[in-house]
Amino acid sequence: MVTYARSEVREASMPDNTSVYAPACQLYLISPPYVGGNFPERLGRALDAGKGLITAFQFRVKNVDQHEAARLASPLQAICSARDVAFIVNDDPALARRLDADGVHLGQGDGDPRDARDELGTQAQIGVTCHDSRHFAMEAGEAGADYVAFGAFFPSTTKETEHRPEPEILEWWSGVFEIPCVAIGGITPANCQPLVAAGADFLAVSGAVWGGDEVIVINAFASAMAQANAHKPAQ
Fold it and tell me: Are 147 and 201 in contact (CB under 8 A)?
């Protein structure tokens, strides 16, 4: 994930060297709870299907020690690195440092972004969960977060949620602040367009992708997001 000031122009080079604008909103994949078995192959297929659309992958595995987490993360990190997709660790700056990950995502109870910055360095991407709170988001921005995440916007099969923001919080944030915002929680190709239209820079998705055929779902996201991006007003 390369975070950016929203005022910056982002371009990508096509094979014929013509220049095209990168998508206004992109995908941020989150792992399922189990990443063993054939999951590395599934991740590779998803990233290949979403080339240019998927910019980050979050490693979120619970209830394992750091040694086991590092073992599970290793092949996934290599897959992301080979495709220039940022590898973000959920909740654990120490694990992110051990892996030399691209960054860490912090929940509200996972510590101060300033401490994570001290541990991981200036180049690390640090994101913060802000639920439905404008106050949390502004605090995260002041603490040096590279992105803020709002949600859950819809009921989620991945984790229990108690906060349910409205898309207007994305419109408010993107209209006032330069730090990118991530929408998360129960997002599918069928319901994502209002979040894109409201100003989300990234859609964080998990259950919708891993609960089905990842290639089909990524392609469906690409189609839905392209339609929404085409009608998204310039900022």
Answer: yes
CA 136, 188, 13, 234 dihedral sign is: negative
CA dist., res. 89 & res. 73, Å (int): 9
Angle at which helices 168-176 and 134-142 cross, to 10°: 30
What is the C-alpha separation between 60 and 57, in angstroms, rounded?
Answer: 9
Of 67, 90, 106, which Cα lies nearest the Cα of 206? 90
- For residue 198, report the phi and psi dihedrals to the nearest 5 degrees: -75, -15
C-beta separation of 167 from 140 below 8 A: no
Give pLDDT tens digits for 184-218: 999 999 999 999 999 999 999 999 999 999 999 99
Return all residues near 176 (Cβ < 8 A) that are at least 6 apart.
Answer: none
Looking at the whole model, is its pTM more than 0.85? yes
Question: How large is the average pLDDT for residues 20-46?
Answer: 88
- 3-state DSSP call for residue 48? helix
Domains of the chain by range and CATH? 25-230 (3.20.20.70)
